[in-house]
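Continued from yesterday's entry.
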Amino acid sequence: MPAPLIDLSRLDLSKIEFGSEAIAEVNPQSYEMSQLDGIIWYDSNEMLCLGYKEVTDSEFWVRGHLPGRPIMPGVIMVEAAAQLCSFYMKRIYGLEGFIGFSGIGKTKFRNTVLPGSRLYLLGHIDKIRSRQFSATVQGIVDDKIVFDTVISGMRV
C-alpha cells in the first residue's frame, strides 16, 4: 500500500479554502456530475491539493449501484479525482480554457466508499507540458486509501 501523498493529521480538515460555488466558477460539471464539494488545502510550490466529496445517500447512483448495498462506483471516484486536478490546474496553476480528461492509468481500488462517507481526494500534479498534465491522486476514507490512480488532462 502506498503512503498518503499528504499527511492529513497536520491539516485543519474543517477549513475550506474553496467551496462549491468557487469550484462551479471553474469546473463545468454540474448537478449530479459535480463530484467535488470543497478544496481544503493546496501547496502551489509542491503542486499538491486536498479536496473532498461528501458522499450522501441521495447520490444518483445509490438506487442502482447496488440495490440494498450502495457502493460508490469506481468511475465516479476517478471522475472526482479528475475534477480535483482540473480545479487545481485552472484556479491555482492558471491554465486557461477547457480541460478535458485524457487518460487513466495505474488505478487500484482498495476499499469501498459508502454513503455517509467523506471521500478525501489527495492530488499531486506530476508533470506539466504546454497543453497536458498528469497527476497522481489518492482517495482516502477514515484514514484508509480506498483508491489511487494516475490521470492526465489536456487543454482543449
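--- second protein ---
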Amino acid sequence: MSNVKLIVMYPRPKDITAFERVYQNEHVPMAVEKLAGKTQIVATEVLSSPQGAAPFHRIVEVHFPSKQALEACAASEGGKQTLAHAVSISSGGTPIFLVAEEQTFIFDRSAQSA
C-alpha cells in the first residue's frame, strides 16, 4: 500500500484564535520534529460550508510512504506524544483520526479550456 496518510479532523474550536495560536506555535513544530517517517503534512483550514456551519475547523493530512511507516510512527514515543497533544488542544471536541490510502486523478487542463 502506498500514498497512505493519517487524517486528523479537528472540530470547530470554542475559541478559534486561541486554538490557532497553540496549533501554529506548539503543535505544528511538534509534528514536524516528532512524526518520524512522514513525507508531507498538508494542513487545511476549513473556511465555510454550503450546508451551513462547517463541523470541522482544520483537516490535516500527514503523508507516509507506507501503512507500515505510519503505524511505526504512531507507535513511537514521538508519535504518541503528538497524537495526545492533538487531542489536548482540540477545545471543540475530540478530533477524528482516520488512516486512508490516497488515489489521485489528474486532468488535462488544455482539454478543459477547449
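The chain is about 40% helix and 25% strand. Helices lie at 16-34, 67-75, 77-89, 109-113. Will compare against the first tomorrow.
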